[in-house]
Protein: Glucose-6-phosphate isomerase
Organism: Oceanitalea stevensii
Amino acid sequence: MSPAIVTWAGDEETAVVEVSATGAAARAVHDAVPGLLEEHVASRLAAQDATLWDGDLDVGDRLGWTDLHQTSRELVQRVTALREELAAEGLDHVVLAGMGGSSLAAEVITGSLGTPLTVLDSTVPTQVERVLEGDLARTVLVVASRSGTTVETDSHRRAFVAALHAAGRDAARHVVVVTKPGSPLEELAREEGYRAVFSADPRVGGRFSALSAYGLVPSALAGVDVGRLLDEAAEVAPFFGEDTEANPALVLGAALAATRPLRETVLLVDAGSGLYHFGAWAEQLLAESLGKDGRGLVPVVADEHAPELAAREERTLPVLLTPLTDDDAAAELDDVADGARRVAVSADLDAATDATEVTVSGSLGGTFLLWQHAVAVAGRLLGVNPFDQPDVEATKQATREFLGGMPSLEPPAFSDSGVEVRAPRALLAGARTVPDAVTTLLEQLDPEHGYLAVLAYLDREGRAPDLLRGVRDGLAARTGRPVTFGWGPRYLHSTGQLHKGGPPHGVFLMITGGAPAHVSIPGRDFDFAELVAAQADADARVLTSLGRPVLRLRVDTPDALAWLTGSLTRRTT
């Protein structure tokens, strides 16, 4: 099957990014791109024209990401020198404490390039304890927070510094900070004499910060050649600023936002791309940028065996992340004057035989920049401002209230086989077993627009991933609807915005665990067990207040979680 639309950007020898679209996605590109060209959207975006989007936020202060491949260059020499300095002192184990946009890109970069990096983005006590019990003598902690007040990251810093002091170490020599200029964290770092402070570009929001200090500093300290990453982005940046039908960012943005009927769900499928957990990074970019004002796209991270992919449901747009290879399609490409080749190839756009899908491949640096441009374009087409997140503060405020003594939402309704069940009485509808309670929740799914979000406040580096393996696919097969999966509390800094501000069709299954470890947070009157419980309670409260169905299941043992896993995918009569 020949693609209906192909765009390819690179030099005469190598494609750096490639996007193809078939079926309804190709027709959407064909229909939407001429308007984008007429309005000079690509060149205006590259020129950081804030008038492309409506909204109260000063978008002009959020467009610095478009030239990070240039402005981040000054970081390379400094962070490389710091890495050598740390290595000379035996500090070769890098731990990154950061949430959402402050850690996801670094996780992708280091994982894709096979460089060890420990990411601490959880308040689950056992995960925190595991890092604190590591070899602190050779550990450097990168504390990354744009605001400088992120409760999870501040708590990690406090616990880590206390552990270093207890081990007789000079804690300040082990801490590196990445934050925006003038933040409370920057002020604290200078007062405490931390090893280094990197001021990130304040014109860049978290989910657009892959090529800023947030992505580059921890990656470089871990051993990545971040200069090459910037080179990869620089190779394709000129193409993304061109008002031409062959612009891959316009093609991807149009396919995401303009496919009709609107593909409400974007299925992010890694088809051997070689990019580690890139779907999780793209998930945040899509969810936080486009999920607001009751609109947006629901990103689902899945693999090639996803039931949603097999079903080819008309409201789901599969986006396949594939390896970048030279293929015969290059023979169809035309050389242009500047020595680069890129083209849009149109086939019979009325053909009904082509399945609807989008395929994306590219270098790591180029792919980061491609998706950022494409999502900004999609925001323009959907009529949403991609640079704010108006619905995330509610859970933060509710967390503070729970930590201040607010009682939980409701008492346990019942327990079944070691699983404690909590939900509003009206939702349970008389259910007295876990399978029945799950069935009543799933009955709330809108058969045309609904999606299920599984939210697990469990140790994602312990036994939970193995015990929950297959749950997402099993529930997708059982319901015939898209299913997302997120680890708490990190999803609060990713899909949390979409859950509250996006299409109001979500149904939520929250799984929490007991507290086998109580890890204190110096200077706070709560510990990590209390913090993670408050975060789960807070998000459930906010979702419930918005009319979203929420079922909460608490498991205190691996056996109970294993039993629950089987119950989730088993239909009841």
Notes: The chain has a mean pLDDT of 91.
